[in-house]
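ESCALATION

Customer reports they have been waiting on this structure for their group meeting. Please prioritize. Original submission:
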Amino acid sequence: MSEKLEVGSIVEGKVVRVKPFGAIVSLGKVQGLVHISQVANSFVQDINDHVKVDDVVKVKVLSIDEESNKIALSIKEALPKEERRPKGDKPFNKQPRRQNFNKDNSEQSSSNPAQEYFRPHSSVNASSDFEDKMKEWMKQANDRQTSLNKRANKRSY
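Update from on-call: job pushed to the front of the queue and completed.
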């Protein structure tokens, strides 16, 4: 089936079909599949935005299954190393920033308003603050429930 193809080699092929799950690439006498996850370094919502029929693409051979005549290919693995993004550089993998404090334990100024909001307040007693918030929350919940009950009683007539 694949006298010339070897796993790990980078070859040129022509896109012959585009399906929602990937692209079928002709490599001469054989064809292989570039799964949608192997098309680009970024998330691929619609594969048609990245490849089209008759495009000539460089692909890396990921695996060859002689028994089922299946060849797994990757466009993103065939890119030069400079164009590939490190795996930890994904936007949804970012670690939260740690707060920076000066020597006197005061927080350095930041442009993130959430850091200011969640900054610990040393002058407030934590237990009394919690109790006050809990009382306020219970009052709001009771008011909402009363309002819902009034609406339900009006509808039942």
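Sent to customer with the following note: The mean pLDDT is 79.
Escalation resolved.
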